[in-house]
């Protein structure tokens, strides 16, 4: 939920598509002044407040590289990770993988009819905000019909000549 000018993560205009009524934890409601569909920075503020309120920071690890996951003894998960060049193994009772379904772009440059396309292509993982050099007055085709595709179609329609969506 922290916007950064690097590949991946949230784009500049990211907001949730679930109402705040259903977004918050049952034991820690969102503040009353939160809009019904909060932006990424408001969600980040809420998550930070939640972690502070329940003293969760000491249980979290950031910027660790997961190297290997094995089913360990006693139905535990053994996770091998790297931090600051050091390899560490730890056992966990549960495991949740939240990498995202479409975090890796498919290379379609060798697939018909994309192999004949000479224009610019990109994947939503590289998108951050409308770029005048890339999007202004262009005709843009968005392939897909999920939430990200819809978000980008709306946002790019403010600068592009035309935006089309291809959905199967």
TrEMBL record:
It comes from the Eukaryota. Transmembrane segments: none annotated. Keywords: FAD, Flavoprotein, NADP, Oxidoreductase. Gene3D superfamilies: FAD/NAD(P)-binding domain. It holds the Pfam family FMO-like. The keyword Flavoprotein applies. The keyword NADP applies. One of its GO terms (molecular function) is NADP binding. PANTHER family: DIMETHYLANILINE MONOOXYGENASE. Belongs to the FMO family. This is Flavin-containing monooxygenase. The lineage of its organism: Eukaryota, Metazoa, Spiralia, Gnathifera, Rotifera.
